[in-house]
């Protein structure tokens, strides 16, 4: 067991933002899709810290702070609530808690999604850092998750190195993490 008594694996935050899934009106398929992606791509031992919250800015921000500050997740992936509808507030909540935004993540994910659906431009998804945590928004459609993560994951381990987080290693047959030569 680690110091925190929660096991040696790195905690990774998986947050689904959905009014209906959080009320039990449909089963959450976004969180499981993220977990399945991480299970394929990461060789570093990790464990999911799953959260399911309604589209409420303060609640989303509170969960992101908990995962970053209390659980010290190096990576938090958030799905849902990134669009232009009035209740879509995930990008605002992410920006509320991040110290710095990384616009390249959103740009790359929208560009990849745009090869699949013209409505990709409707996602306002952002990414940013809070302490040693990288937070990345993903669209709510479960099918968007692999598309978006494929577009960015090669840069995720080095980003976490640069902010002082733990080393994450990927299975190179799934995603070759890029770390510039020293
Ligand atoms: N977590 C999820 N699990 C399963 N399907 C989802 C999930 N999130 C979104 N979807 C599907 O993608 C569609 C668009 O997602 P979006 O995030 O815009 O949902 P929404 O219309 O805002 O509703 P809600 O917040 O209640 O999920 C949804 O109508 C639903 O069919
Ligand atoms: N890859 C991918 N990206 C996508 C989509 C999709 O189906 N696949 N849906 C788009 C749509 S229709 C919307 S409204 C926005 C925001 O979705 P969200 O509010 O569920 O996060 O994501 C967009 N990005």
UniProtKB/TrEMBL annotation:
Enzyme class: transferase
Gene Ontology molecular-function annotations: molybdopterin adenylyltransferase activity
Pathway(s) where this gene product acts: Cofactor biosynthesis; molybdopterin biosynthesis
EC annotation from Swiss-Prot or TrEMBL: 2.7.7.75
Entry-linked Gene3D superfamilies: MoaB/Mog-like domain
Domain MoaB/Mog residues, every copy: 13-159
The protein's name: Molybdopterin adenylyltransferase
Organism: Chelatococcus albus
